[in-house]
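Q: I'm teaching a short session on how sequence maps to structure, and I want students to see two examples side by side rather than one. Could you give me a first protein with its sequence written out and its structure tokens following it? Keep the formatting plain so it prints cleanly on a handout.
A: Of course. Example one:
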Amino acid sequence: MNNSKLILGTVQMGLPYGINNTKGKVSLNESLEILNYAYENGIEILDTAEVYGNAHQIIGEFHKKYASKKFQIITKLPNQVKGDIIKKVTSFLDELRVGQLHALLFHSFSSFENNQNNFGALEQLKFEKKIKNIGVSVYTNEEIEKVILNKEIDIVQVPFNLLDNANLRGEILAKARSKGKTVHTRSALLQGLFFKDINDHHKAVKNLRNELILIADISKKYKIATSALALGYCMQQHTIDNVLIGVDSIHQLKKNLESVNYIIGPVVIDEINAIHIKDTNLLNPSLWN
């Protein structure tokens, strides 16, 4: 079991999220059940954000109910940071019912760029042990290049999956690691895109239809379930420290935990790496609408 490499995302607990989500926001009771199952099965870190509805409060409820089970928490500053960052982080700690954040991330590259004057406050929070790491959530390789030059940044969070693959990201992720950065990846299942019907009318499915057919062919050819292919591929990357996944049910979490430790052979990995997306904007879910 290698579940400690996983980070569990909590956006679905605070908001209806994902192109395959037909149930809406996860209920409080199921959220607590998901968190408890994750903790009991070796997941140590949660990813959340101020803008994820009431996800902070739900995590706080879990820590209140299960006082002996404390997750490490990554949360994010919004694109527009209003008010005192030190007060904001103190309120985050109260909501989450933890003494320290594992990491505080800028939610975007623009947020990182616009808050250079707040790094003094972030360093003070580090000194006071209210936050352990500072990071940035980015989309493009160009953004990664700029972020990893900043010595104050500990963590870079980037998309990585069967399409947003080593062909696109391998070199830059190796460079980030060589600069001493911890690499977290998100979008392992590309919001559930890999499970959509190939003839679905969703914009992303139509634009990426040929590549989605390639993935389906690889899955069929090697008799590997798509979830095992997608999660195993991310988990086996040596340049990735942690892989972020989101779920919208306890059943989905259990299925994902069955998939993450599937070992994919080098021939299969080579076929995945041969998939090349020319227009990388097609891989950005924020541009799908």
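Q: Perfect. Now a second example for contrast.
A: Example two:
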Amino acid sequence: MAIHIVEEANRCLGCKRAFCQLKGCPVQTPIPQVIDLFKQRRLEEAGELLFQNNPMSAVCSMICNHSGQCEGACIQGRKGTPVHFSSIENYISTAYLDRKEWKPAPSCGKQVAVVGSGPAGITVAIKMAQLGCAVTVFEQRPEIGGVLEYGIPEFRLPRSLVQKYRHVMCSLGVRVRPSTTIGGALHIDDLLRDGYDAVFVGTGTWRARKLGIPGESRGNVLFGIDYLVDPTSVAIGQNVAVIGAGNVAMDVARTALRSGARKVTVYARSRHISAIDDEVELTELDGAEIMCGKAICAIDDNGPVFETAIFDEDNNVVG
């Protein structure tokens, strides 16, 4: 056990009104209780508490906006450094996934179909299996995970973690049908015909958002979410422009640098960077340059064409 994790846990004040949980966490993770169990060396109970509240706890510990959520709301951060719960959560959650002996629950006689195996689909499949339902997951891609497998780079989220979740599901009795599209040969009506009592549809938001500018269909243009599915399938060249400054843009920039690009520039129209602060810093450390005030108006064979944005005294774009 890394000593800094214990030190972080000991810094927790155990607030009765825990802002980290009540205001900072979208899923109300019982942070003070988890830390208290951890400090008592009751690791399995702490892991169980995290998992039952949110089966994706191990994932969230790696990719959540901690500085803007749990750690950003920590009272210790008002005058100093907040408790880094993400490190504690990651240690507990990954250990729990590895050590827990998963067994199917007694059958309740119900069948559930889960369409899509992203974070939502995995969570529903696990929860339903724990209630005794016979669950089948339908996934159109060869591997489960959705955005966890195909949308988040390996350096941010190890693929081995996705496989751990597959092991959990299969151990609970969940059946997985990969490379099966619901809406192709099979439809929801077929699932209901075959006796499923409920169907959960969690197909994700894979359709890229267009900029609505001339040149988006050119061969030197890629949508970020499509590029991240398989970066090795594309020859991106050595000079890459990334339009936008959200988390996906940072993932694309960092991936491009790892895929042979020599110069990567992230262009933002405003001075507000929507990506997580930590991701922005890591992107710059990796070697990408971030340029603000660049409004894209077209893309030609030489790359993007910009207009320089004009800001008012509040840093709002006025032209």
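Q: What should students look for in example two?
A: Point them to this: The radius of gyration is 22 Å. Also worth mentioning: Strands lie at 111-115, 134-138, 175-177, 198-201, 239-243, 263-268, 289-292, 294-300, 303-308.
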